[in-house]
Every structure is written in C-alpha cells, then in structure tokens.
Amino acid sequence: MLDVKKSIASAALFFGGLAGLLSAQPGEANEVSIGRVHYDIFSVQVTGRRQSAQQRFPFALVFDFQMPDKWHFYAFGRNAPAGMDLKLIVNEADGLAFGDAVYPESHTYYDKVLDKRLDVHSGSFEVYLPFEIKDGGDIEDTRADAGVSIEGAYCSAEQCRIISDLIIETKIDVGTERVLVKAKLVEGKQKSDEVEQVKSITEQGRGTGNRWTDYSLFGALLLAAVAGLSLNIMPCVWPVLPIIVMRLASQAADSKGKAIMSGLAFCAGILLFFAALAGTNIVLQLFYGTVLQWGDQFRNPVFVGVMSVLLVGLAMFMFGVVDFALPSSVSSKAGGGGNGYAGTVGTGFLAAVLSTPCSFAILAAVFAWAQGQHWIPATAAIMTIGVGMAAPYAVLTSMPGLLERLPKPGRWMALFKQGLGFLLLIIAVWLAGALPVKMRMSVLYFAVAVSFSIWMWGAWVGYNTALVKKWIVRAAAVGLTVLAGFYLLGAKQDKIDWQDYDSQSIQQAQREGRAVLIDFTAEWCLSCKVVDKFVYQRDDIAGLIDKKNVLAVKADTTQRDRPATRALKEVYKEPGVPVTILHLPGENKTLRWRGKDFGDDLKESLKKLGAK
Question: Rounded distance, CA 151 to CA 154, Å?
Fold first, then answer.
C-alpha cells in the first residue's frame, strides 16, 4: 500500500511538471524541477537548465544543496581532511556527454580542531554539471538517464559524517525550450519528513541518527554499570590503583573500620567526578538547550594537553623518580584523621579523571543514550557509571578477607610499576598527537620540562636534607615549571596571515601585480624557529607585509613529498632551509635570504614596494 502511495505521488509530481511546461510560453520555462532528494541532514534538488549559446555545453544539471546551519562541505581536496571534498561524479549517461562539475565560490571557515582555515560550502548553494547531446542525437527529442554520485564529508564544529553510497538517478528530457529532469535517490540513507526535525536537533548541538536512544531505562542503566566497571581495567587508571589498594590493605590489618571509611572515601571521590559531569549536563540542558557529549573534552586542546602532561608526570612516579607521600592520618602507623580521608577522596577523583583518555566505546554509548533523554534519567545514567566504577572498591573494603589474599609487595611490583610507566608514556604521546600542529611540539617540550622538575623534586633532596635546602630546590623546580609553561605554552598569535604553499596562488598573485613572500621552513629545523621568532614576529615587518598587500606563503618542507619541498629544489634550486624568497611585483626577479639574520634587509626591501 505504501509503494502504491509513493508511485501515485511520484506520478503527480511528474505530470504536474509536464502541465507547467505545456502552459508556459516559449522562452519562459527553461528550468523545471520535480521533487527534492533528502539525505541525512541535507537535501538536494535537481533541475535542468539551458545555458547561453556562447557556452561550450548548452545544457546543465543544477544541484541545489540545502545545508542546516553550522554544517558545511569541504570545497577543495588540497585542504580537506583526507581529501574528502564535495565531488559530483557522473557514473553513466546514455546519449549525453558531461563536462567537469562547476562548483560555487567557497568561503573560509576556521576549524578549531585542525587549527587552520579551510574553504567550505554551506547554507544554500548550487553545483552545475554541464552536458551536451552526443553527435547524432536529436535536440528536439532526446531522453536519457544519468546516474550521479555525490561524495565527500559534511561537518560541523562537533562532528563529521561521510556520505555513504549517495547516488541520484536522473531522467533527462531535452527540448528546444526547456530541460525536464526527474530525480530520485537509488542508494543512500533517504530522509524526508524527519529532515526538519533533524535540523532543529542539530542546531541545538545534539547528535543525529542516534541508534542508542532505543534502549529502555533499565537497559541503559545496566549498560552504564558495565561501562563503569570497565573503567577499572583502563591502563590510564592503573597508576592510582596500587596506591589505594595497598592503603586499604594496610589499614585493614590495623582497623577494619578505618579501611571501610577509607574505601568509601575513595568511592566518594569517583562519584564526585561523575556528579560534576551530571551537573554540567543539567546546566547545558536547562540553560543552553544542548547536552554533554562524551568526547567533547577531547576537542579542547587545553584539556588534551593537560592530560598528556599529567600522564607523563604519573609515568615519572611509576619509574620511582618521585613518591607520593601519604598523609600520616591514613598510614598504618598513625591514628585516624579527617585530612587523610580528604586526600583519599582526591585520589578517587583523580582515578576517575584518568579513566577518560582510555575509556571504551561503551562509555560513549551511555552518553549517546543520555543525549536524547530528560535530564533526570540522563543524570541517573551518568551517576550509574560512577557507581559501576566504585563498586569493586566498596566490595574490597566490606570484605577484609579479600584484601588479605592480594599478592605481597616485592620486586615484581616495582618492575610492574615501571612497565606501566612506559605504557603511560605511550598514551601521553598518543594524546599529544591529537593536538593542533602548532601546539603539539610545545606541549611535548613542556612535558620534558615537567619531567625534569619532578626529577629535581624527588632526586635532588632526601629525607635527611636540611629543610632550607629542600625548600630552595623544590621552589626552583616549581619555578622552572612555571617559566617553561609561560615560554612554551603562552598564547602565540601569528602576526602575519600566512597561506599554505600553492603554486597556482603564487602565480595568480604575480599576475595581479602583488609581491609574494615565501618562507621555506620545516618542523625539524631549529634555525627556522629562530627566523619565525626574531623576523616574522616583528611588528614592523608584519605591518609592512599587510600595508604592501604582500602574499605571505608558509612553505612547509617537513616531509619529502610535499609540494613545497619539491619546489625548493626543482624551482628555486635551494639546498635547504631556512630560506626566504621575495618575488618582486612586475619583475622576473627574486630576492633571497638564507639563514636567520636578515630582518633589517627584508624590512628595507618591503619599504620599497608600492602601496596596495
């Protein structure tokens, strides 16, 4: 019955279009559209159009894209991630010859995750597929079928989706005064009535197409409990576990009540972390109309950088470079006290924080379910994750006999801890790899500085070191960390609007009479860093580049196969970096500076250029 209704609707659209053609006057109806194809969150309407006689192709298929707010397609393969720019490809066309797709003018979008400007298409835009009738065809009566594939990735600030098997089948009827096109989706995730609803959800920052929302409340809570349990086997949490387990074991030998209180304090620290997540989700839902998405924290470079450095610091602890001193109130040789329990709460909170970089996909599934719920069941699900993570420690403290069965400390534990230290370093480097390129090396250098400071703190002084000397050494270690942070992590804003190396852009600028400044550099080149800091960070040079309308190009030769690397050797015949080249406008002449002491010479050359 449903297929019959679809057939009737399609026929009505088709004959409605024909009726419009028959009633139109000659020259008025050269463009006809029948239907709009919906795919996930965007839609495409296909029309036929006659073009002017001066153009090579007299006809064109026009694809009118409608994107929801804050979503875009990438415009060019050279800067689209993994080359996933928007592409329209004709698979088959009987009796027709198609030219290359003509895309609209793009606009610039700053991608915070990639830390670069990208050319994108968004909102409403049209893509043309020009075509002509093959030799022997009759323009008065040509009917043909053409299959068009649409490929690429469409993204927002929060996520990217890849088009999967989107093929539009078009039936083209060419006449003297019009081009009639009927289009239908033959493959892909077709959407129709849900499109507007999906748009509104997307604008609120929520995920779309969420298959996890089908779970019942009981199923979601069970999944959350399993997710919480799984966090205890995450490698990122392992550095904290020996501390708390050995603490509980020593206290159980002294006082069962003290062990129970310490275990509950550790569980409270875990629950405190997830309560903070639940509270954040409530605020986002009630006041901002959005939800907390698991993984959002890893889109924040500051969070990722802090976690990476923290894991390096914990690796130093695992190597025995420094020890965490336990409060006397929780050691087995001292009496009880409230401060010790506060430290245990903090340790539980730290364990929960450390679990985030290594969490399984099951945790993301629980948050995906919570995204589509009222804040009350969403809060219950998030807190159940914390309960699942805390449950093993509650069981351990309530059954002291289990603690007695734990392996006795020995050399094996020292080797195990040191082995975990290397694992933590691997995770830290993996996290640093997700940072923007400009920030990545600074964070790694800062991690080395923090490691050195930790070594100073733990190895330069001992138990018998005089108190004054101990304070001096540790104050120096803290000061070194702070200075390294200011120098390496301080906000660095490029004073020059650098463009990536592109030979066509350079040639275009030269045709327009603009000067072109090319800075050949590489990530592994220390002298290049000096040039960047002491030449291109100068206000006078940056001001002249802007004033004279100079195209500033950053030519990255870090890798051998990059276009800039080939141009350095094949076009400019230069053996290495750093080298700066200035193309003078209107002249087949370049000025070149090798090395790093050329700031004043560059300034004088820029002054001689004409104003923009």
Answer: 10
Residue 522 exposure: Cα atoms within 13 Å on the Cβ side: 18
- Say if strands 96-98 and 124-133 run parallel, antiparallel, or are unpaired: antiparallel
- The CATH number of domain 499-607, selected from 3.10.20.280, 3.40.30.10, 3.20.20.70, 3.40.50.2300: 3.40.30.10
Q: Yes or no: say if 31 and 146 are a contact pair by the CB < 8 Å rule.
A: no
* 256-273: average pLDDT: 84
CATH topology of domain 2-202: Immunoglobulin-like (2.60.40)
Q: At what angle do helices 361-371 and 375-398 cross, to 10 degrees?
A: 140
Q: pLDDT category, 23, cuts 50, 70, 90?
A: very low
Q: Strand 31-34 vs strand 179-187: parallel, antiparallel, or unpaired? A: parallel
Q: Closest Cα to residue 597, out of 542, 526, 527, 545?
A: 527
Sheet bearing 579-583, strands edge to edge: 499-500, 551-556, 516-521, 579-583, 590-594
- Domain residue spans in the chain? 2-202, 211-435, 436-491, 499-607
Is-contact 151 72, C-beta < 8 A? no
What pLDDT, in 10s, does the model give residues 555-604?
998 888 888 998 998 888 888 888 999 998 877 888 999 888 898 999 99
pTM of the model: 0.51
